Amino acid sequence: MIFANRRAAGQELARELLARFPQMATENPLVLAIPRGGVPVGYEIATAIGARLDVFVARKLGAPGQEELGIGAVAPGGTRVLDHATITMLGVTDEYIERVTRDELQELERRMRRFRGDRPPPCVVGHAVVLVDDGLATGVTARASVAALRGVGAARLIFAAPVCSPEGSALVASEGAAVVCVASPARFYGVGAWYEDFTQTTDEEVEELLARAGTREE
Fold first, then answer.
1. Please, which of 54, 64, 86, 125 could form a disulfide with 153 given CB 3.0 to 4.6 Å?
2. Rg (Cα) of the chain, in Å, rounded?
3. Contact at 8 Å (CB) between 10 and 44?
4. 20 SS3 class
5. Tens digit of pLDDT for each residue in 56-76?
């Protein structure tokens, strides 16, 4: 399946989520989208199930010269997950890992300030949380996010993405989250290969969708 864009993918994913969890709309769930690309997807899910929408900022640690290949990820609360097998295979040094961690933590803080301002983090205690991204490849960003959300008391976690690699899905499921995908192709190639339009989502688009969701919830 090829998705036209993130919004269309989010609509397909919302249908899949409700088919798997038909009671979801009555559970007062919280949709947390990983910016930037996860926000258009998450907006459609939040609209479909009548949920609140917020962002959960996590950052992939890209491999040297291959930034799209994740060797780890960082999330709020000091959470860091490393893919030791990939690190060993590529011969990535400790110095590089620490440097890219510092860089991505700075970007995480920038995005937190940009998208959340002074608002406190959403309370996840006792809530069903749907964590959304525009795709799942290695799974490191989702794993870091799940670990961080577990650490602050999320009652039940569902990770949802339009397209997921089988390997990434298995890793996220091993962290205790249910995984919902529309497509899980054996030959994955990369998230962008499954979208006709995979134009990078901008900060401004994220802010617009968050504002629109906040207006809808008032």
1. 125
2. 16
3. yes
4. helix
5. 999 999 999 988 889 999 999
